[in-house]
């Protein structure tokens, strides 16, 4: 069983990474800050937030002792902090000046790796805070890194899809193509791994969109993954079976982290929230878990608590009590009409009724989308939701107009799909795609009349 025990909403922009020490939880964000919380009660520590980066913070990690914390940013720097008082111990500038995407401490705290958007990777000596070795991946941006449990090698992943194994002297031991569309994250379990050996074992499926984050539990028995589909899936590593599917985030899930020596899981998202979960060590049997989790994916199977969470996420928190009093579950929610909102729930405000109905209609479309497997080209690459007003950007991809406009307005001048600079910010309506989506929806609605969608 996975129980949501805390939601942290202090960041003002996308959460990019979460990390645990034995006593703290750290989170970092596009808002340029790193925040640190006590695991005793999840209150923010007095010196938090840590402010030192001038641009978005992409990654943060604790040293094994928990006494120091590293964070890296678009500003081209990796900062090392003292977690006892929040002091800045060192600013490690990437030699190339490129935005730093990932950082990791070695298990014995001797080294710190920083990887950058230009493919450069630096191995820093933690004691001297000096560059010990440096190298480059062949192509692409370096976006992922993980040390082996013994510390004698580490793995980096790049946006071109390569995994590279390096020894502790920065010698390349192995380089293999892992993913056609690029690596976004990687982790190594606590189980013994022989140095320099990279072998394919299995493929875990379950997400309906790109995976952005993954992490092994401290004992290596579970693997958590977060995705553009807004779900977090927890797998049993020995069998590959799905144990839990967590659906509380409302935007891309960008971060997953397990606590050391306990069954706490933190997940971060572009919805600016960090959820902290308590996992039960008595795992459900695989068959029951898969059956249960498949039901979570459609709103018609939501519980009353799921409906309450949905209301809060869309700004209708004041209606939670009313909906609970009327036992509104997912099926009831999808069947609500203007008349039932007026006569049965007694919602007097015309404006409020209209807003709720609009969100319910969006949910109906999304529920049909999940049930019928919408063609991927009809889904916005940013929101992974059915597009209503598709436009073509300068990278050649089609996006929901509002989503790509928000992407650009947040000073992101790069393509959401390729991460390359957009040569132009002009957006062209994709009328052909809009017509195709409209025809597809009409077909599904006709089917719905006979299949009770």
Helix and strand layout, with pairings?
Layout: E1 2-8, E2 15-20, E3 24-29, E4 33-38, E5 50-51, E6 57-62, E7 68-73, E8 77-82, E9 88-93, E10 100-105, E11 111-116, E12 120-125, E13 130-136, E14 142-147, E15 153-158, E16 162-167, E17 172-177, E18 211-216, E19 222-227, E20 232-236, E21 242-246, E22 253-258, E23 264-269, E24 274-279, H1 286-296, H2 304-313, H3 320-325, H4 330-334, H5 338-343, H6 350-372, E25 390-392, E26 398-400, H7 401-409, E27 428-429, H8 431-451
List key phrases describing it.
453 residues, alpha+beta, four-stranded antiparallel beta sheet, 8 helices, globular
Structure description:
By secondary structure, the protein is α+β, with helices and mostly antiparallel strands. It is 20% helix and 33% strand. It has a four-stranded antiparallel β-sheet with strand order 1-24-23-22, with no helix packed on it. It is globular, with a radius of gyration of 23 Å.
